[in-house]
Amino acid sequence: MRVALIQLSYDDSESVEERTSRVVGLVREQAGHDLVVLPELWPMGGFDYRAWSEKAQTTNGAVAQALSQVAAEIGAVLHGGSIVERPSGETGPEGKDLWNTSLVFDAQGELVTTYRKIHRFGFAGGEPKLMEAGADLALIDLPDGSRAALSTCYDLRFPELYRAQIDQGATAFVIPAAWPMARVEHWRLLLRARAIEDQALVIACNTAGTHARTEMGGHSAVIGPGGENLAEAGEGQEVLSVDIPDRLVADARETFPVLADRRLNQRSSR
Ligand SMILES: O=C(O)CCC(=O)C(=O)O
Fold first, then answer.
1. Among 85, 117, 205, 238, the one annotated catalytic
2. Hey, which residues does 114 pair with through a beta bridge?
3. So what's the ipTM on this one?
4. What does the pLDDT look like over 206-248, one tens digit per residue?
5. Which CATH number fits domain 2-261: 3.40.50.150, 3.60.110.10, 3.90.1640.30, 3.20.20.140?
6. What are the CN hydrolase domain coordinates in residue numbering (predicted)?
7. Nearest alpha carbon, ligand 1 atom 9
8. Is 157 helix (H, G, I), strand (E, B) or coil?
9. HSE (side-chain half, CA atoms, 13 Å) at 200
């Protein structure tokens, strides 16, 4: 399976429409890949809290439609990163109407899965103040037959989420992010930790550039189930193109079957 991660750089100068058209062009250039991945909240700005409400869209809005079209055009599964979602006529348990929602399109351009970020970042501000939390796990079948679980940025700090995902059959994690430079070493270390402890393929696409006065950390990466770096980006805009060997996770789990020794979960049998 050939995977492309588009580590997009942006600042405060583009409209949503301009950025969408730039991103569609970058996705189009990835024809020949089986899976293309974009970062978290790239259309609205990961840290541009003040613009979120005004820029929010539905999962059938202009951004989603542009992503659907380009996925079909290049015939690849497209993880479109996430958008600030305002569904029509829905509010959550806290009375808010925004979610941080990832969109996945199949190679025909159909929106096959959405994932609403479960762990909201910002403590008393940011996401918890403005958005509802997601409640559901989301998994997708990848073109090579493996099963990928979705999470977003700050979710990475909560290992129990990834354990729940492997209990649902996940062999890979796809993680879009807008992770700041200030804590980029946490990002790099936690990606490896999740790969090693869950013996899974980690496909993690971060943001570059500086927006809303926050410098993004870059260092998107593809990490194998033994913690091996299959590819890692630098700090600027960059596309990572990676060939994932067949049976990478299956072989790792067979030759070093540590997950079978878990005792504090339903699957423990020893
Ligand atoms: O956990 C972190 O340090 C960064 C998280 C974040 O930026 C996010 O979830 O948007």
1. 117
2. 103
3. 0.96
4. 999 999 999 999 999 999 999 999 999 999 999 999 999 999 9
5. 3.60.110.10
6. 1-246
7. 154
8. helix
9. 31
